[in-house]
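Amino Acid Chain and Its Fold in Token Form
===========================================
Purpose: to set a sequence beside its fold so the mapping can be learned.
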Amino acid sequence: MADSDALGGDSAALGLPDGDRESGTFADAAGVNCKRSSDQGPTGTIVEFNIPTPASTPGRITSGVDGNLWFTKGDGFGHNQIGRLTREGVFTDFPIPTVDGAAGELHGITAGSDGNIWFTDNTSNQVGRITQTGASTFFRVPTFDSGLGQIIAGTDRNLWFIESTANKIGRLAPGGAFTEFAIPIPDSGVAGIAPGPDGNMWFTEFETGVIGRLTPDGIFEEFRISITGSAPVGPTSITAGPDGNLWVTDFYDRIRRISVQGAMSEIALSSGSRPSDIISGGDGNVWFTEYSSSKIARVTMAGAVTEFAVADRPAGLTVGPDCNLWFTERNANKIARFTP
């Protein structure tokens, strides 16, 4: 692993604040405690908000400590913006500076306990921080052209992110220093990352069919997914579930569950579902998007799956401070709210 000072200024303390984890109550990525109430509206209700910027290609989305939703826009198509949406439907765009005139590829986004929003820009090879007023600061990743993707706040008050091209897991410390951890398996296709209930970081390797664990001290342990017959394997997103296990979307129409000891089980989905993002919904269930079949879905801890049709290709998914699910509709250029 390698350490390096960040470029672009100092960094405040990052991470997830403690929250109420009791049954029926949860803390979302921004640390907002939430319990479902009757004023959320009827279960299954979908409300869509049209993004004013045409063809903005919304991607990942997160819930901020300001009570708003924050999402990435552009993905290399020239918009190069972070978007903010209030629960009342008001959009604000925050332009992100380009590097040498190149449009940014804003991939990951998450909330830090410092009250700021953090994101990755693959084009500039930087982790960015944006305040609620739109002021941005950047921290250049030590490895050149690292292939930045998802970013998440860890329970250790650091930011963790994936470097798919460099085949590394990156960590940004509160003092502004980077640490990079080389994944033992070459060309792993690291895709998703999430803090686990055991205090470690868990990640997925799309190309190798592996779910990995990384301790804060930099020790890796990798668990290979058992292949049934000739079925392909492609783990993507990962989240900690309310049952103390990790839950994973598999591009090849599976949801996978793995215990912190490495025991695995799988749930088959409809052919062509192509599950994408996955989160713990706070209602005792896990929720995920089915990008190709234009659905969001709920899976109970007993493995029962319920699907809900949406307008168009859901991508990123988060729990809002209103206890609803919010997701991006990439092709339709919308942000949608779903009442679970």
Remarks:
- The radius of gyration is 18 Å.
- Residues 1-32 have pLDDT under 50 and may be disordered.
